[in-house]
Amino acid sequence: MAFSLSSPCGFRSDEDEEMAVFESTAAEHGGPSRPGLPELSVISPGLDPRPSIIEQKAVKPAAARPGSSDGRVEVFLRIRPLTEAESERGEEQGCVAVQDEENVLLKAPKESHSMRAAERGITQSMHKFSFSKIMGPETTQQQFYECSMKKMVKDVLQGENRLLYTYGVTNSGKTYTIQGSGPEAGLLPRALSSLFSKLQGRLYGAMDMKPIMYQDVRHLSSGEIRMEELRRNSLLKEDDNLPFRRGGNTTVWDSGIGGLSSTSNIATQLEDTDGVCLEPGSLSHSGGDDLEEGVQFSIWVSFFEIYNEFLYDLLDASPSLQPRKRVTLRLGDDKQGNPYVKDLVWIQIRSADEAWRILKAGRRNQSFASTHLNTNSSRSHSIFSIRVLHVNPEADSAKSMHISELSVCDLAGSERCKEQRNGERMKEANNINASLLTLGRCIAALRHNQNNKSRPAQVVPFRDSKLTRVLQGFFCGRGTSSMVVNINPCASIYDETLQALKFSALASQLVHGPSTKTRVAYILSLLREPAAGGNESSVMEDEEEESDVEDGDISMLNTESMLQAIDVLKREVQRQREEKEVLEANVREQVVSEVMEVISEMEAGYSENLEAERALTEERYEDKISTLQKHLKIFYSKELNERDQVIECLSAALDKTQAGEAPPPSLPGEDSIACSGGLLRRSERINKTESGRLQVELDQCRAELLAKTQELTKLKTQLEAPGSTGTLAADRKLEDGQRNLRQLRLDLQRLGADLQSGERACCRNTGGEKLRQALAAADETLAKQDQILLELQNGLMLVKADLRRKAETLAQKQLATPLSAAHPTPGSCNKRGCGTTAPIDTENRPPQKRPFFQSIFPTQTLTRRCNARLAEEANATPYSRILRSRQQSPPRSPAPTPRSLRGKY
Ligand SMILES: Nc1ncnc2c1ncn2[C@@H]1O[C@H](COP(=O)(O)OP(=O)(O)OP(=O)(O)O)[C@@H](O)[C@H]1O
Q1: 704 CA distance to ligand 1 centroid (A)?
Q2: I want to staple 248 with a disulfide (CB 3.0 to 4.6 A). Which of 211, 268, 803, 832 is the partner?
Q3: Residues of the signal sequence (predicted)?
């Protein structure tokens, strides 16, 4: 049964599914057994996950081992021994068990995250990994060199490009493996020693050719040669003058970031040795017999680091005790698109000792810091490169030069960022982990492309980090790479170790890309293609030729063949471009169709959701409506009951009214809205009757007023007759009275209009309130009329008094002139006496004998003449009755309110 593991370094790819992951029973490994979940995963670099290939493992021939002739990347595992302190801390819990020289078993310790995950059934407590070669804690540096790097040196001298890089958790022994410590020289010094040992007598001592860019060579002028010499000597002298030649002192340099100095405690690992200290006989068999005849070798080295995604040359200028700003290097591409580090310093070396000293000089500039896991932790990826110029002094210069390279990369250790207390350390750890993650992604993509040739190729994200960009050439066929995985068997970092091993398992499934030689063969095969249609013998010849030149260089071809090759390659490029276009079109089509599918699925999903939502909403609102209906039903049934009661009450009252009984006492709250319907109908009927009555009264008032006005006019005429100047005031008052009367008339007209509108309001049945308002307005108008009439009355009283005075004056005059009074002339009588006699007499008569004043001034006149008033009572008009009733109520009652009016009805 297969299961997948999480990707190394936290990334995930389809490799997870394809990774060879198998389980065996846990019982045989002594692990706790749980039903249903196997306890052991086997991660084998050379195996396919399919069961059919599992069997191949058993019969796998030695030649097919990873990293050997099957073209797979070599991955070595090196387990460092526990230190005394670590042993005392109880870090030895047997979590790393080497089974044989290829297989190792990792058992999760109790406290580890993996064990907790295993207990929850998420993963296994044991993992088995296979490697090209496993070197246990007891392995010496020499043994490790022998099995890992020795052959690489040989290959480089034969013109190949090789890369060796170390990968592992911090404090796992990467730097120890590469550089060594004290007398235990690491892989790099050993390789340098081996190289120079092989090149004895074959070194090209002149410095007139220098490697530049990716793998080009430049001929130096004499001035440039002098400059190169100076630089080289200064670096070597620096090493002689080291202030901390023995003792691990401190040097200070500027990180170049933020301009702040960072302290680097230079490791003492290399400082303890004056020279390469190799075990006796370690290079005894390293003769240069297999080197090409007649070729000389010029060795150049460079050393740089990638710190926080910035490139720094470790061999640039001399180190100083003062802080200084370091210059960052940039990456560039040559014409073929091969990446290289611009302005990188290359130093020619002529012996292993010189190389050793240059390495130490560079190492002084490297970024180290003390972390919680390693007191001397590399905070950068460092790359030491050895370029070998293959010079054939006898051959034509164009054909003589060949360059090969050996690069050794000491990767910074992966670590948990959260464990870094220091901000700078945290930043470094982030950058380290990010670049390692990119390396993992590149390897995963390469592996995917190798395993899925029929499927569209994945883009390998080399450009995502400086590290992968620098190493790109080794992963793309311009060389081969080998990996050393360093692990620390401490139980406390088991989880990190497991991740590192998973990463290595992925890397070990990589197959090297076609080498440059294969490319030559490919170009030659293309050249032969046009001739393929020729006769058989020529094909045979070609085949023979192919076997001859396959190992050669394309520069071996003559100009004509080269031009031909260029033409063929152009055509090939065109063909491949067209192929790619078709492929891209297909990919686009597929993507579009997949996206459309996704969109239609999403649409379907949305419409389903919408439908469900709609149904839900409908249901919710239906519930609400039914609840509302229920409440309304209750409310209206209550209302209906109340109305029924009111109706019953009103119909009982109506029955009684019809039966001639007295109207029932008004219901409590009859003006309330609940009872207003029935009451309004009743009050409308009453209002109609009352309006009719008021109308009649109004008409009578009008007629009465008309009569009074006529009488007043007549009186005025009579008063004007004496022609006395003393009557002017009375005249004015009379005019006032007339004005008042006109006003009274107008008001009465308005009253009539109001009454009519009240009547209309009743007729239209527009509601009790309007009727009430109309009645209130009419009431107010009546009050105003009342007031005006009173004023008029007063005015007339004054007129009356004035007339009386005039009458008295006239009487006195008549007494003074008895003759004229006893015998008035007809003319005078007509003109003055006769005309005024009647009124004067009238005035002097008792008031009850003067109907005009009695009717106009009922209050004052009749109060003194009760009998006369009683007599007139019977003849009083409705209007005068209203006025009288109002005037009689002492004190004057306020204007009736609409409520009091309503109360009448
Ligand atoms: N095979 C070994 N034998 C003896 N000591 C070792 C071995 N490997 C590592 N050590 C010791 O372990 C310590 C840590 O090693 P080293 O500094 O090389 O780790 P590292 O992986 O480079 O750490 P970092 O990534 O933090 O730089 C050193 O003191 C080193 O001497």
Answers
A1: 135
A2: 268
A3: none
